[in-house]
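@channel sequence for tomorrow's demo:
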Amino acid sequence: MRLLSGIVVVAFALFLIGLAVTILARPARAERFLHAFASSARAHYLEQAVRLVVGGALVLFSPAMWQPDVFRVFGWVVVGTTVVLLCIPWRWHHRFATWVVPPVIRYMKLYGVGAVVLAALLLYGVCAGSASGAV
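structure tokens (generated this afternoon):
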């Protein structure tokens, strides 16, 4: 299970890097992707499923990472906010997304930098943890 959760954490970090590259290279495509969040019940539940998998993987793999407490708390925050989003009607999430996405798009390059920083922290956490023998 630990190996699988580590693979999910690394895959999520690589996804974030891919998102940042898309923001720089194909901003219109990135904008369409961001507008798709909570655009339908299907998109909402798919997003929540992915969030649960990533958050759960962070919680499970955090003991093998550099700064395990930080990554464990981050994982639980992802899981907790996902549970909240699952308990509200998807249309509320859609309304929230229509309010949040325009500023994100306005500052999309900054969002891309944030995605790279988070990806780097995740990858460093995985690599430094395995180098210290935590895995």
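heads up for whoever presents: The two ends are 12 Å apart (CA to CA).
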